[in-house]
Amino acid sequence: MAQCVQSVQELIPDSFVPCVAALCSDEAERLTRLNHLSFAELLKPFSRLTSEVHMRDPNNQLHVIKNLKIAVSNIVTQPPQPGAIRKLLNDVVSGSQPAEGLVANVITAGDYDLNISATTPWFESYRETFLQSMPALDHEFLNHYLACMLVASSSEAEPVEQFSKLSQEQHRIQHNSDYSYPKWFIPNTLKYYVLLHDVSAGDEQRAESIYEEMKQKYGTQGCYLLKINSRTSNRASDEQIPDPWSQYLQKNSIQNQESYEDGPCTITSNKNSDNNLLSLDGLDNEVKDGLPNNFRAHPLQLEQSSDPSNSIDGPDHLRSASSLHETKKGNTGIIHGACLTLTDHDRIRQFIQEFTFRGLLPHIEKTIRQLNDQLISRKGLSRSLFSATKKWFSGSKVPEKSINDLKNTSGLLYPPEAPELQIRKMADLCFLVQHYDLAYSCYHTAKKDFLNDQAMLYAAGALEMAAVSAFLQPGAPRPYPAHYMDTAIQTYRDICKNMVLAERCVLLSAELLKSQSKYSEAAALLIRLTSEDSDLRSALLLEQAAHCFINMKSPMVRKYAFHMILAGHRFSKAGQKKHALRCYCQAMQVYKGKGWSLAEDHINFTIGRQSYTLRQLDNAVSAFRHILINESKQSAAQQGAFLREYLYVYKNVSQLSPDGPLPQLPLPYINSSATRVFFGHDRRPADGEKQAATHVSLDQEYDSESSQQWRELEEQVVSVVNKGVIPSNFHPTQYCLNSYSDNSRFPLAVVEEPITVEVAFRNPLKVLLLLTDLSLLWKFHPKDFSGKDNEEVKQLVTSEPEMIGAEVISEFLINGEESKVARLKLFPHHIGELHILGVVYNLGTIQGSMTVDGIGALPGCHTGKYSLSMSVRGKQDLEIQGPRLNNTKEEKTSVKYGPDRRLDPIITEEMPLLETLALAQEVNQR
Amino acid sequence: MAVCIAVIAKENYPLYIRSTPTENELKFHYMVHTSLDVVDEKISAMGKALVDQRELYLGLLYPTEDYKVKFVMVVDSSNTALRDNEIRSMFRKLHNSYTDVMCNPFYNPGDRIQSRAFDNMVTSMMIQVC
Questions:
Q1: CATH number for the domain including A347?
Q2: Is A556 close to B14, i.e. CB distance below 8 A?
Q3: What is the rounded CA–CA span in Å between residue A181 and residue A183?
Q4: What pLDDT, on the 0 to 100 scale, is given for residue A282?
Q5: Bigger pLDDT: A803 vs A887
Q6: Does B40 contact A110 at a Cβ distance shorter than 8 Å?
């Protein structure tokens, strides 16, 4: 598992916090809406206590709670929809990408050096969101509401009346059988009355007097006067106040959706508030006319189900259901808490403190005591007697079922207030207030009870929490019971078929194991939970498993890579393309250049595909290129597929920038040192055309003996002409340059005589390659007769045939694994310096089906004998390395290569051409 | 019997790898490559304590310090007829055959194995499926 920002000792207490419901009157909600926040959101940044808290456990021992956090949320009466949760998690993961400039750790394992980012923020945000979006369940009480804040505003006409109305509402929600959700911890929920007072608008005196009245009615411990909105939002620009909400609201999109998707009106308000952002008036109007405190719909509920009338405005729907970062974008423009000053922040903090000290904790303490008393009285009965009576009158609680039946049910076994559940309740309460010793012993007892009753779901829940609390116990009096977790996971998954619970259990267990450096156990757990039903979860878990392997004492690099590939595959199935690409790239580091060509090709191919869909075309091209240039061991059909894919991607790249330089093509290979250059006309004795007196043609092999003969012959001729002296600057004429000839000088070519370049191609693939419009690429410096050089460099001027004419081979086929030469001619019409740079061609292949579609879109593509499926225009450079220099000492000790000027002829003016006809042969024969 | 047989060089690149043609070859490549981690783990465990001397095939590989060639065999786990003994004898055959390859004066250690005799032996081990 990758490293996390939070340690496990912080993570778990933060994941399981006391839950408090908030029920606001419309007027109170309006006051908080002035800040673009709901009441629950308003409290969110301040929900962690800054000081230690003390409470007394049932044995009257003082117990210290550190860093206590409470979670306040608006009451919603629908459990979260699995579909919406899935979508939310998906958005959270895709919204969290690795930072661009993130410095990756380098891990050296054996002969591998890997760049691995140590943290995986997408996993952490996934986990956080996952744990927060857990619905409240019947067999555990950790996220059941412990208390309810009833909030009314001081500007209300009858605040006290309003409070009793809210109180009745809460009572109705809790006790009316119409509402199965939300869940409440115990029947008599703590009610805490909060009077919101708008300092800038309200009457202070009135608020105080109402507060006095409240104190009379509900006691000083049960109510609070919270003053907010000390300034009006108009002055927001004057003073910059830190915005503690932004991080919470962006990080946690459950809250986002709560504020923006919680009612029929809020969609419009969302839209409008975006528009009205800068106009400061009327912001509240949109909110007022709706039901701001809409508790009929869970924030996670899909809107379709919450309000059918909504389905009319489709675009808004899409918008609100669109991905997280869009919501984020909408959010960043909104200034939260515009009406709050720093004093207000302090007041809210004070309020939370007060509520926890005076309201919540005494309530928890009292409840624990009550539960404890119940348990003791229950224990007072003889245990055996108790179980015996239970057996006798078993009908009431445990339905008479065979063990097999019980194992098949994950359904309810106990009514909500069953005595068996009381101990679990007590354990959960102790856990929430971080009293892990007591929690562990309660969970342990509960586990035994549940197992006796064969209540598997309940037992698994108790086992899970017993393991967690055993781990969190201070001083670690007992070893971490890993087998508890294993049993719990197995039960959740196989007996209860509840993957969500199994996943939570695995996430917790893996984190606990990680903190004990038991990486291989953690990896095994994570891998075991991957399944077909959720690709996103499987991908994330596999990735974490991969991180486990690399973090072991002796890192398992190959297992890491393999699981990364599996994770990448799952990510791509889950539609998380960026994460998939990242995973494959990480795995690539391990496979690259290690001789596992089949695997390497597969990864490269996938990287290419993914990069292409993410429009990272350059990466796609280089990945595909990789597959083709390495000596591939794939089958012909596979190679054909790779080639087609490559051509397709390449075509897209070149269409994006049609005016850019021609791309370098990787295929076919060019054996550049085998390039031969021939000056003059082809030898065609039959035509009666004038022929140069030479012994060579391109059709014959190099013959050192005859070339020596001709060289001597030429020397003799020159010496006769120069009266017996060979001039020092004499060099024998060379008509054909190849790898054996002396290429250190610029060769001379004559204007109006063709230059033939023979290029040796080799096709490394098993499929046929078709080159069309094959011609040479050149650069020409014309030499003016006026004497000064034309400065302008004409490059690649196929459009200037008056300078140099180039022959174009329209179709050139190379079969699979074949080597073949192509002869390309240039006709210089002007004198100057010519540089032959390379070849330019359309690379394509022939598909078996010979489809004709798509050809029209390709300029310069011939529909000749072969119909092309796809082709791209590109070039390859001809660069010839000269011979290794070996004359001076310096050259001998270092590796230096001389120049090779084969391809840089100087075009000279017309020269006399010595023609020999039959005579030449006679001379030879004599 | 075996569905994939691989000989891996000391530098962990494949000298020889063959799998049943009916199956996805790529899968076996990944599998064999990943299993090298387990081999590494076992070898490093061997170094620490002389455990289980009966594990001859790991033991035999170990003393030749600088030439640790690995044989990896993938078998179908549903095939219950395969016992440890059979696996052992298969490895013995593979090892003998590999030794023959190494005795070939024209074989360059570290090259891919392209011996027909070796090929035939591998085929015989893979096709023994009833």
A1: 3.40.50
A2: no
A3: 5
A4: 36
A5: A887
A6: yes
Q: What is the pTM of this model?
A: 0.74
Cβ contacts (< 8 Å) between A565 and chain B: which residues?
30
With an 8 Å Cβ cutoff, is A562 touching chain B?
yes
Structural domain ending residue among the three candidates A327, A357, A373: A373
Q: For residue A320, is it within any domain?
A: no
CB neighbours of B81 closer than 8 A, spacing ≥ 6?
none
Q: What ipTM was estimated for this complex?
A: 0.80
Site from A520, A542, A559 to mutate, B interface, most B CB atoms within 10 angstroms: A559
- Look at residue A741 and tell me if it is in a domain: yes
B29: nearest CA partner in chain A: A599
Does the distance separating the beta carbons of B14 and A110 come in below 8 Å?
A: no
With vertex at residue A744, the alpha carbon angle to CA A742 and CA A745, rounded to the nearest 5 degrees, is 105
Residues facing A832 on adjacent strands: A782, A907
Neighbours of A15 (CB within 10 A): 22
Q: A516: burial class by Cβ within 10 Å (0-12, 13-18, 19+)? A: middle
Contact (CB, 8 A) for A271 and A50? no
Q: Is residue A813 part of a domain?
A: yes
Q: Do A556 and B40 lie within an 8 Å CB cutoff?
A: yes
d(CA B25, CA A580): 23
Total domain count for chain A? 2
* Residue A565 to chain B, least CA–CA distance (Å): 10
For residue A559, give the chain B residue with the closest CA. B34
Closest CA to A643 of A764, A762, A538, A536: A764
Q: Of B128, B112, B115, whose CA–CA distance to A597 is shortest?
A: B112
Instruction: Flag whether A384 is in a domain.
Output: no
Residues 798-837 of A with CB under 8 A from B: none
Residue A60 pLDDT: 80
**pLDDT for A576-590, tens place per residue?**
888 888 888 888 888
Give the contacts of A619 (CB within 8 A, at least 6 positions apart).
A607, A608, A611
**Residue corresponding to tokens 């003996």:** A705
Contact between chains at B37 and A556 (C-beta distance less than 8 A)? yes
Nearest CA in chain A to B110: A595
For residues A190 and A221, give the distance between their C-alpha atoms in angstroms, rounded to a whole number.
Answer: 11
- Of the ranges A231-240, A603-612, A710-719, A820-829, which one carries the lowest mean pLDDT score? A231-240
The whole-angstrom distance between residue A807's C-alpha and the CA centroid of its chain comes to: 50
Could you give the residue ranges of the DSSP H alpha helices within A853-917? 889-893
End residue of a domain, out of A316, A350, A373 = A373
Q: Report residue A851's pLDDT band, with 50, 70 and 90 as the boundaries.
A: very low
pLDDT confidence bin for B127, thresholds 50/70/90: low
Domain with A774 in it? 670-717+730-785+798-847+867-886+894-908
Does position A39 have pLDDT exceeding 70, yes or no?
Answer: yes
The answer to whether residue A919 scores a pLDDT higher than 50 is no
What's the confidence (pLDDT) of residue A404? 43
B11 and A565 within 8 Å at the Cβ level: the answer is no
Q: What is the mean pLDDT of residues A37-62?
A: 82
Residue A398 has what pLDDT? 42
